[in-house]
């Protein structure tokens, strides 16, 4: 069985967040969704669980942060092209997300940033496969 990741995100409004995540290309899995949670599929092995605050709180005794004010994590998402990076960022902005900083272009790597309705940070990026294959030492010198 392939390794999988399920990213659990606390959200203020499950229905509104579901619409946002569908707008950026994810698909809702109705078998694992209800009024307090939406299971969103990004790929065969990567899923986002959008959980209302009350349900999320059953998984941890810690206080849920306000991701608009505090950064708890940034999720980097890889794409096959610069155009795909731009497309998901445009979709996120059109669906009500934010853009915390302008695009970054390092030649071998291109990235953008967006936040969802609750302030969770995403960093879609594209990296030149040839540059990536050369390893970290070569990438470190690419900016010079």
Automatic annotation (TrEMBL):
Kindly give the SUPFAM superfamilies that the UniProt entry links to this protein: Glyoxalase/Bleomycin resistance protein/Dihydroxybiphenyl dioxygenase
Superkingdom classification of source: Bacteria
Q: VOC domain spans which residues?
A: 3-127
Alphabetized Gene3D superfamilies for the sequence: 2,3-Dihydroxybiphenyl 1,2-Dioxygenase, domain 1
InterPro entries the UniProt entry points to: Glyas_Bleomycin-R_OHBP_Dase, VOC_core
Under the heading PANTHER family, the entry gives: BLR2408 PROTEIN, BLR2520 PROTEIN
Which protein, by its recorded name, is this? VOC family protein
